[in-house]
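Write out this protein's structure.
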Amino acid sequence: MFYDHLILVPAIAFVISVIIKGIMSIIKKGKLDLSIALWSGWMPSAHTAVAVSLTTAIAIKNTIWSDLFAISMAFTIIIIYDAINVRFEAGLHASALNKYIGEAKFREKLWHLPSEAFAWAILWMLVAIVLYYI
């Protein structure tokens, strides 16, 4: 069913990532904080979940030799690169601005460590594979 409607695979991965972030907010703050569950930064990365699960689903459905897989893989690499590197630089800018204005107005932790991105990418691949066999 999921592979007849491929958009369901990344949608489910997105929902799972938001639920995990919600659970982590409960553990960290003692209550559900939807702003944490839906924001950029903090693991698991919802946009990486969408990209990796979709790319994996395309690989399963169309093979890794398809043009569609190549396009999806290229965008997944860009998304993960952004999550690790570009948003790291944005966090440094936020830190400098917070110091300059004397208050913590901007979020400084926007990025993911490479090890975090890799570990969670494996989970999103597994989600796509499990959905294939359901």
